[in-house]
Structure formats: structure tokens, C-alpha cells
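Late entry, evening session. Most of the bench is empty. Finally got around to the prediction I had been postponing all week. Sequence below, unchanged from the version circulated by S.P.
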Amino acid sequence: MWARSRKRATIRFVDVDGVRLRTSVRGTGPPVLVITGLGASLDLGVPFERELAALRLQVISFDSPGVGQSSAYSWPRRMRGVASTVEHMVGALGYDRVDVLGISLGGVIAQQLAHQAPDLVRRLVLAATGPGLGGIPGSPRVLLSLATPRRYYQPDYYRRIAGRIYGGTARDDPDALLNGSVAQFVERPSLRGYVGQLYAISGWTSVPWLHRLRQPTLVLAGDDDPIVPLVNARILARFIPDARLHVVRGAGHLFLLERPKEVAALVGEFLTAEPWTGATTSIDGGRPGVRRQSRNSTETEAQCAQ
């Protein structure tokens, strides 16, 4: 049914909720749904997906409505509606239970999905994301740069602003985040799709119900993230009952692209571990780190190998 190679993915178009979504499935093993960030097509995450697939995980990803090769909604939806579309897409692909990894805006969708479809989501990984209203936003100058999809259309503009908005490796080498691919500038978001994503997240918050999420959750954050400051990850880890936080030192907003192999190892270990209680176990393979426990959550601060 699906390709069984970590290097090649099977691409399939799925019609749900009035949109046609481009989906990708790579590898074999327990299924992991990856939800990308604002304006990002599934192509941008390929280096990270390959590393996950190498760990015997089956990686599912997709272009959000109006992004890449997916069609846009005829009328924009709020976050609950977006999460419903993702739920219906997962069902159309033949899955009834998946792990979910959301990045940035994808992390917002992942939270909403875990909240409204708890039986679908087994474990949750939230990367470079926050709780929406009630969290701490990035600087106005950085957020203003995200108001349009211009960085996906103009390579020179991307290189000019990447360090300021993404932090981490991009401060010295913006092209490092591209991993030798031009997909960012080819599979671009449409203006309609991009504005629709901004509309979906406006006014959204997970703060009132984070304490009701029952999935074991790994919260990942870079400590040099201008878009989503580290404090937002601490908020998520504090309020989600069964959560642990791992801080990637020196990394920016797109740390999954900066260090795909190291981060994939963290995620893979968390997703394949035996059930845990959120008490004392570090998920960084015993690397030196400092853990501070608050209620049922565990925080690990360690520097991934570079």
C-alpha cells in the first residue's frame, strides 16, 4: 500500500472537508503525524522525516489547505475547523490512532487535535510552539515579518530576515535551514492559504483546557527562538499534566531543520518508550542535563550534539 523506504515517500491526494490535501507517508512502524508551521509545505521537513523513518517510525505529513499543492478552503476556518480537517484526513488515510508532532503553528493544531479528538492522538510532541493567548509573543518586529508569505517567494528577502526571525543557525547561515533544497521557494503558500492560517490562529488559546490533555507530551524548544520565546514551552510543560520539556541549547525556531538527526533521536525515544509517569526519567539518552520537576512534569535542559 505504502512505500517502505525512508528515502522515498508515497504521495497521495485526499479529498476531505471540501479541500484536496497532498499527503506523504514514509517508512514503516508506528505512525507519526507531522504538522508543519505557518506557510510551510511538507517538503521542508523531509530531512527530519528521513531521520524519524530511520528509527522505524512511519511518518505522515501533508500540505495544509492553501499551502504547497493543497487547495485552499473556500471559506477560512477557525482552529477547531482546521483540526477537524486534519482528523478527517487521518481517517481517510486509514489510521485510527497516531502520535502527533506539531511544529510552530502545527503545534497549535496538534494541541487542538489532541483536545477535540483525544482517542485519535496517542502521544503528543509540541515543538517551537505555545498556548496562543496567555503565552508570551515574540517581538512585534519579528511578528510583523510573519504577516505576509514574502519570505517564501523572494530568496533574497528570506536570507535578509532569516537570522532575525528564526534565530539559531540562521543567524550565521540562513541557507543551512534549506538543507540544499529550493522547496521553500517552489512549494509556496498561496496568499489565500496563508491569510487563512493567520485567521485560524487569531484569538486562539489552549490555556483553559491544557490541564485536561491526557496524552503523554514531549515539549521541545530552542533557547534562541525569536518567534516563540522559551517561556511558552515552560507554560505548556507546566499546565499539561503528563508533560516533559527538553530545551535545545543554542537552537532557534527551526531546530528540527538545524539538527534533524539529534532531535529525531529525542522524539523517537519518547514515542517508542514504555509508558511513563512523568517523574524522573530523562529522554536525552542519559546526556548530562539539569532536570527540574514541577507537579507531574519533568524538564530536561541539555545541548544536542552539533
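Two things to note before I forget:
The chain has eleven helices and ten strands.
The first helix runs from residue 46 to 53.
Will write this up properly tomorrow.
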